[in-house]
Amino acid sequence: xxxxxxxxxxxxxxxxxxxxxVRVGLRRLLEVFGLxxxxxxxxxxxxxxxxxxxxxxxxxxxxxxxxxxxxLELHRHLVSSGVQIPTVILTADDSAELLAHGGANGIVASxxxxxxxxxxxxxxERALSGKAPP
Length: 134
Fold this sequence. Notes:
This protein has 134 residues and is an alpha/beta fold. The chain has helices at 20-32, 43-51, 71-80, 96-101, 117-129; strands at residues 12-16, 36-40, 59-63, 87-91, 107-112.
């Protein structure tokens, strides 16, 4: 009889973006590379999902600018609630506020949209490995 090695499920990345096409595209890309994903149209939807007892994802992909609760506001809310999840921020601009948060409190990378698949995957890999940004 051989001893079986436990199978580790693939890492899970939560995608939080208010644009449907972005969520779909990111989900497809990450799943091609063997990652599990969950998608959420808003920060409030993601918080409700977590509070509903869902398993915490291994990494977050957050849109910096969403109505009602921006990616940075969502990240601050999670950190203040004691929820630490390695995070990649996606943005369409280079705002000083966003750049000032790079590397702080679990933000692994801030990437400018449109982001290349290679850059996105490299940032997600850094987040999942726990390595600090270069």
